[in-house]
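Okay, is this right?
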Amino acid sequence: MTWELFVFLFLAASALASALLVIRAREIVHSVIALATCFIAIACMFVMLSAEFVAIIQILVYVGAVVVVILFGIMLTRRGIMESEKR
């Protein structure tokens, strides 16, 4: 087994495990972190396929934008829920 196959299998397993964690996690923040991990593993697979531009776009758009927007949405909605519970 070559190192490329080993790295690919590791990335595929980590992408699958983190995708399952996105579905199974009870906390939404844990799901977002697992989603970012899945996107990074997929970007690493693109690098292995010599598609560096697609990998950079994957990281910039999905990890950089989508995950950050979801985290900001979580932070803003939780603040409103926490303040209404205190009253």
Notes: The helical segments are 3-24, 28-48, 52-86. The mean pLDDT is 88. The chain has one domain: 3-86. The chain has three helices and no strands.
